[in-house]
């Protein structure tokens, strides 16, 4: 049995400190009591602002507890004797076949974390949404969608785990470089298949029936110089009141998707502003830029993971006999979860930059700031949240600038 080295202890301590610090910092900043933003009161009624702030507080508290519970479960598997025995037992179910050992541990660890997270997922995905009138789903319908999502996620993750451990077995020291390439390629493939394979599993996808909307989108796409293969409507109105639109897919799978609720609630000029914003992401290649950043961060995380697996050999209570031991899946899950939390501010900063540029592009393409502001107001009403969050919360976690910042930028582009 080996004792963990000083660099190994320092690495785990640093990762845990950063990840837990971010989670708690965001939670306390969100829960802080503060007066309503004076500028926001010019565009929204006070009761709506308070409702959105309360919605955010409740969601942040539940999400923070879910993250802490998930990290605690993984840490217990990796660093508590009882958890290590569970992993060894799962590994032994593979009966000496490496791919079966990896499958047992990967699926077992995924089920354990899914069970730990289930109460929080149910609250966030159903109870909380229903309390604010955002979902019409029954509990059983929500559970069916949740189980389908878990099944798809576990299945795709298992394929990656098997590929990863094949690389570890082939090259225990340099596997991370090949794994970074495989992971990046897989995420790019999923981005291409998302609109044609995954979205139809969860939503009814149908062509947009309004010829005026179709013509408007085609005209916008032509002016933007973007080729769009299909314009589709997502049937969410029977289950949700949220509004959304997106451009998804790559090359021949690139499509414009509109929630049917968006078509019902927005005026033609507001819809044009929203779609111009979404088309900007295709014009600027934002999906590719986000993928490149994610691939770079993932490669760095995998390089760290390779070092951790080497350093953890023989360390109690897990006692990895070698880097390719299947029980190491739990270690990698914990490590990558911590790295993902630590990388969130970097990814959020790039995303906000893209969204700012998309808003500017929408203004240039439509020359209608009033419609863009009105679309922001309707989106804020349908998708409750804090329209003027604390700056720290926005910087560390928001993928979009706050609604009030977006309104201000639309009305005063030079500010």
UniProtKB/TrEMBL annotation:
- Cofactor section: Zn(2+)
Which residue ranges does the record assign to the Peptidase M48 domain?
209-411
Name the InterPro entries on file. Answer: CAXX_Prtase_1, Peptidase_M48, Peptidase_M48_N
Matching CDD domains: M48A_Zmpste24p_like (cd07343)
On cofactor binding, the record's note says: Binds 1 zinc ion per subunit.
GO MF term list = hydrolase activity
Offer one Pfam family short name for this entry: Peptidase_M48
- Residue limits of the CAAX prenyl protease 1 N-terminal domain? 55-203
Q: Which domain of life is it from?
A: Bacteria
State its Enzyme Commission number(s): 3.4.24.84
- UniProt family annotation: Belongs to the peptidase M48 family.
What is the name of this protein? STE24 endopeptidase
Organism of origin is Symbiobacterium terraclitae
Lineage of the species this protein comes from: Bacteria, Bacillati, Bacillota, Clostridia, Eubacteriales
């Amino acid at each position: 049995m080996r004792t963990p080295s000083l660099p190994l202890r320092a690495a785990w301590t640093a990762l845990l400190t950063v990840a837990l610090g971010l989670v708690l910092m965001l939670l306390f900043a969100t829960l802080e009591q503060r007066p309503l933003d004076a500028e926001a009161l010019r565009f929204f009624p006070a009761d709506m602002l308070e409702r959105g702030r309360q919605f955010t507080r409740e969601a942040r508290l539940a999400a923070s507890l879910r993250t802490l519970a998930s990290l605690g479960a993984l840490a217990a598997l990796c660093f508590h004797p009882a958890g290590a025995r569970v992993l060894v037992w799962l590994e032994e179910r593979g009966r000496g076949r490496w791919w079966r050992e990896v499958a047992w541990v990967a699926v077992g660890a995924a089920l354990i974390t899914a069970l730990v997270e289930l109460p929080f997922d149910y609250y966030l995905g159903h109870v909380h949404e229903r309390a604010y009138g955002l979902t019409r789903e029954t509990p059983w319908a929500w559970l069916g969608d949740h189980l389908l999502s878990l099944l798809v996620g576990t299945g795709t993750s298992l394929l990656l785990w098997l590929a990863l451990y094949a690389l570890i077995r082939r090259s225990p020291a340099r596997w991370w470089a090949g794994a970074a390439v495989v992971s990046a390629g897989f995420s790019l493939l999923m981005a291409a298949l998302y609109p044609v394979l995954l979205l139809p599993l969860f939503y009814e996808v149908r062509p947009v029936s309004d010829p005026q909307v179709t013509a408007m989108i085609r005209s916008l796409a032509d002016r933007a110089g973007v080729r769009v293969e299909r314009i589709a409507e997502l049937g969410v109105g029977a289950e949700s009141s949220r509004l959304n639109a997106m451009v998804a897919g790559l090359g021949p799978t690139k499509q414009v998707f509109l929630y049917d609720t968006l078509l019902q609630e927005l005026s033609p000029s507001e819809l044009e502003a929203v779609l111009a914003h979404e088309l900007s992401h295709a014009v600027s290649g934002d999906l590719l830029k986000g993928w490149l950043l994610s691939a770079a961060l993932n490669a760095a995380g995998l390089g760290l993971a390779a070092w951790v697996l080497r350093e953890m050999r023989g360390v109690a209570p897990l006692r990895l006999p070698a880097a390719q031991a299947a029980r190491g899946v739990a270690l990698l899950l914990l490590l990558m979860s911590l790295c993902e939390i630590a990388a969130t501010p970097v990814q959020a900063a790039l995303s906000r930059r893209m969204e700012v540029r998309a808003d500017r592009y929408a203004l240039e393409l439509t020359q209608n700031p009033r419609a863009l502001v009105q679309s922001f107001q309707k989106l804020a009403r349908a998708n409750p949240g804090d329209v003027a969050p604390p700056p720290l919360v926005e910087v560390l976690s928001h993928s979009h600038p706050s609604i009030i910042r977006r309104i201000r930028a639309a009305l005063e582009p030079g500010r």
